[in-house]
Write a structure and sequence with these properties.
The structure holds two protein chains of two kinds.
Chain A lengths: L15 H12 L4 E2 H11 L11 H10 L3 E7 L5 E7 L1 H25 L5
Antiparallel strand pairs in A: 1-3, 2-3
Chain B lengths: L1 H30 L4 H12 L2 H11 L3 H19 L1 H30 L10 E9 L5 E4 L4 H9 L4 E16 L2 E10 L3 H5 L5 E2 L14 E4 L1 H8 L9 E4 L2 E8 L20 E4 L14 E6 L5 H10 L1 H4 L8 E8 H41 L1 H9 L4 H42 L9 H27 L3 H6 L13 H32 L10 E6 L9 H16 L4 E7 L8 E7 L12 E8 L3 H5 L3 E4 L13 E5 H7 L9 E4 L2 E9 L4 E2 L10 E2 L3 E5 L5 H10 L3 E6 L3 H15 L5 E6 H8 L1 H35 L1 H9 L4 H30 L15 H27 L3 H7 L1
Parallel strand pairs in B: 4-9, 6-8, 15-22, 17-19
Antiparallel strand pairs in B: 1-2, 1-10, 1-11, 3-4, 3-7, 3-10, 5-8, 6-9, 7-8, 12-23, 12-24, 13-23, 14-15, 14-18, 16-19, 17-22, 18-19, 20-21
Amino acid sequence: MTIKRKPAKPGSDLLQGTLDMLVLRTLRLGDAHGYTIARLIDQRSDAFLQVEQGSLYPALNRLEDRGWVDSYWATSENNRRARYYCLTPKGRRQLQLERERWAQLVRAIGLVMRPAEE
Amino acid sequence: MRRFFRRGRLDAERAREMQAHLDHAVDDLIAAGRTRDEALREARRRFGNPTAIREEIYRMNSVPVLETVVRDARYALRMLRKTPGFTLAAVVTLALGIGANAAVFSAVNALLFEPLPFPQPDRLAVLEHHIRSPKGGENRSGGSNGRMWEAVRDHTSKIDAAVVGGTSGVNLVADEGAAYVFQQRVSAGYFHVMGIPPMIGREFTPDEDRAGGNPVVVLNHDLWTRVFGGNPSIVGRPIRLRGEAYTVIGVMPADFPVTQRSSFQAGSAVDLWTPLKPSRTGEGSGTNFEVVVRLKDGISWAEGQNDVHGASSEAFVNVPEGGIAELELLPMRDSMTAEVRQPLLLLWGAVAIVLLIACVNVAGLLLARGATRTREIATRMALGSGRGAVIRQLLVESAILALLGGGLGLLVAWGVLTGIGSLGADVFGLWQPLVLNLRVLVVTIAVALGTSVVFGLIPAVQTSRLDVQAALAETGTRGVAGSSNRWPRRILVVSEVALGVILLVSAGLLIRTFIHLRDLAPGFDESNLITASVSMQDARYRDAAAVARLFDDSLARIRAIPGVQDAAAGLGMPYSRLLNDGIRRVDGPVIDKPEDTTCGNVNWVTPRFFETLGIPIREGRGIQAGDVTGAPLVTVVNDAFVARYYKDGQAIGRHIATEGRTLQIVGVVGNTQQGNSGCGGRVGPITQPPCIYVPVTQLSSGFLTIIHVWFEPSWVVRSSLPPASLVPQLRQAIQQINAELPIAQIKTIDDLRGQKLTSQRFMMWLVAGLGLIALVLAGVGLQGLIASSVNERTREIGIRLALGASARQAIAAVVMPGLILALVGVVIGAAVALWSARLLQSFVWGVTPADPLTFAGVLALLLAIAFAASVIPALRVLRLDPASTLRAE
C-alpha cells in the first residue's frame, strides 16, 4: 500500500531521472543546500520548472545513496545551520553521462517534431 | 543496507534539514516584503507536505523483507513471553536434541573434518596394497612388508616416504631407577615426512637406521620434562633402554601428536622413538610396517599415486597369472580414522533421531498452541493479513524457539563434552581436545534453523488453513474437528513411534551385545587372579635360556609367598590377542602341503599355566617341567583347534609343523576367551579361537626375540591375598631376580576383559543414554499428541454417551485411533529398524541384528506408552455428564 504523491503542477511534472540531472547540474556551480538548489533550478529555468520544493529531498537522498553527492552541515549565508551538498567525482562522471543522454534525447525528439515538409 | 539500520537517526536529520529549507524560504519572502504569516504560508505551499516526503525517504531507506522479519520477531517474542510454560517445554526439548547433536558433531568434526595436526596434512598419505586373486578375491590393506617398503624407497621419485613399526613397552633405566615406557620404532626421515622436526637435536640418519647403526633415541616432550627435568643439554646423554646403552639425539616439541590414532593404532601414547632398521627379513618378512608418505612440492595426488603404482612390480613376488597386486596411496586421515568412522556415524545417526523426535514433540506443542490461537489468527486474517504472512509469522516464531533451544543446546553440549569428552577421547584416540569451535557453532545454528522448518512448517500450514468466518463466529472450541486437520497430528504420532522404535532397537541390540560379551564363559576360573606383564624386548633377555631362567627363578619365589596358591607365566593372557603364526598338519587324515599353512594362534607358557588359570585339561597332559631344550618338541592344543583341524576328534599323538619345526600334540585343553586375532574371519572383540600352546623352554632365541618385540609376557598368580598386599610382594620377588626390570602393568582379569570391551561399553552407554532420552521425549510427546486429540473429541463422546452409547464403546472410540496410529508407527519403525540394523552389523555380537527379543521388547514398550497416553484422558470421558455436554452445545 504505497501512497503515491500527486504530481505537482502540470508543466513541472519532471521525470525522476531529469530531476536528478538538474540537481547534479546545479551542484556543478558549487556546493549548495536544498533551498539554494531549488531556487537556482527555478531561476535558471526562467521560473518555468517550478519544482515542488519538497520533492527535491527524496532525490537528494537517492543521489547520496548512489554516491553521486556528498553532504555536510555548515552555516548558510543567512547565518542558519543548513545541510550542504557537493558533487563527488563519481557524480561528475554521472552528470557528463546524463548530459550526453539528454542531448541525444533532445535531438531525437527534435527530429521527430520538426515541421512537416510540404 | 547501511542506511537501513541508521534510518531513524537519518530521519531526524532530514527533518532538521527541511526546517532549515523552510526558514530560508521565509527569510527570502520577508525580505521581499511579505508579512511573517504570509511568508510562512507561502513557504509551506511551495514546499509541499514535509511528513509525506519524510515517509517517502524512510521507505526508500528500508529493506522490506528485513523490516517484516524484525516485526515478526518482535511479535513472536511477545507471544512466547505470554506462554512461558509452552516456551520452556519447547526450548528444553529442542536443547536436548540440538545439544546432543552439537556434542557428537564436535567429535565428528575433530576426527573427520579438522585437518590433521601436521603441516600441509592433505599431502600426507599411507601406503596400501591392493591384491586381487585370479579367482576374484579382493583385499586392500595398509600394512607393508620390507619388500614393499624398499620398492617405495628405491623406485619412486615424487614422494618422500618413511616407515613406522609397532609401538611397544620397553624398559628404560635412567638416573632414578627403572621405568616402563612406550617406544615407537620409526625409520630415518619419519619426522621429515610428518613435517615436524625435533625441537632440540635432530632425527635419525640413514646410517643409524640400518643394522649395526649407532643406538640412538629421540624423546617425546612429555618424557623429557617428566624424567629428564626438561634438561636443554640432553643431546649426547647416554641412557639405558631395552638393556642397552643408547644416546639421546633429539627431543620432539610438545605439539607433536602422540595419541593412539596419530601414531597408527599403536595402542598407547609414545614416550620415545628408536630407529626401526627395516629389512626384508624378520619383522619385515610380514606386513608389520606402516609406510607414511608425503607428496613432494608441486606433485599432485594423481602423480604421487602413479609414482607408487609404478613401484608395484618391485614390491610383490609370485603374483599369480591373472591376479593384481599393486601399491596405492590412501589419504592419511582416512587411514587414521578408518576404525572410528563407523561408530561416529552410528552415534551421529542416533543423535539425529533424538533431534527428529524433539522436532516432532515441538511440532505437537505448536499444533496444540495453534488450535488455541485460532481466534487470534482469524482476526489477523480478517484484518487483511494474507495466509503467507501468517505462515511466515508462525515460522519466525519457530525459528526463535529453535535459536533459543540451540543456545541452550550449546550449554548442554558443553556439559556433555566436559562430562564424557575425555572418555570418548580415549575410545576414539583423539589427537586434539573436543571443543565447541566455530564450525560446531555454525553447524549448530544451521541445524537449529533447519529444525525450525521441520517442526514449524506443518503446524504453521495447518493453523493458517482456517475458515475465518467460522472461527470468528464460534464462541468457543466446540464442534467436531474436521477430518482434514487430524492428518498432521496422525503423521506426528506415527513418526514419533517409528523414530522411537528405530533408536531403541539399536540401543537394545548394543545392550544385548554387551551383556553377551560380558557373560561369555571365560573357560577358566576368573577368581583371585592377578597378572603382571613385563617387557622382554631387552638385550638382557635375547637368549632363550635367560628368559627361561628369569621365569623359573621368579616363579619359585612367587610361589613361596604365603597365600599364593599357584603361579605361572605365558606370552598371552586370557582376553589378550595372541601371536598369529603359520601352522600345518603333517599327519592325520588331512595333510597340508608346505605352502598351505593356516593362520593359527600361538602362546608360549611355563609349566602349571593351565593349572594356575584353572583351564581344564581334557586329554593327555599340560606343559611340564620336563619339556625342555633337547627333549621331544611338544605342544598342547585347545578344543577349538581339534574341532577345526581334526574331523575325527583325535589330536593326541599327531604332529603339526610351525616355524620349520614339527611338534607332537601331547594334550588337549579347554577353550579360553581371547582378544580378536588377526587371523581373519568375522569374530567379535573377544572370542574362543583355536590355539596351540608351546613350552617357552623349547623356543629358539631368534624367535623369542622377534615375538617379544610385539608381545609382553605376563606372570599370572592365583592367590587369596587381597591385591593390596600381594602386589608389593610380587614386585619384591621380581626385583630380587633383577632390580632393573620394571613391571609393565599389573592387572586383574576384570581389567583385562574390561579393556577389550571399552569401546563396546562406551557405545552401549551412549546409545542407551540417547535411547532413554528418546524414550522420555517420545513418551511425553505421545501423551501430548494423543491426549489433545482425545480432549478435542470430548464433546463428541459426550453426545454419544447422551445418545445411549455404553462407556465401553465410548472409551474404545477414544482409545482405538491412538492405538491404531501407534501400531502403524511401530510397524513402520520395525521395518526401518530391520533394515538399518544391518548397518549395526559390525557392532553386534552374539545376537542377530533382527534379534526377536529386542524387537518384541521395544515394540511392546512403545505400544504400552501409546496405550497409557490414550487411556488416561479416556477415563476422563467416563466422568462426563452427558446433560451438561448437550447443554454446552
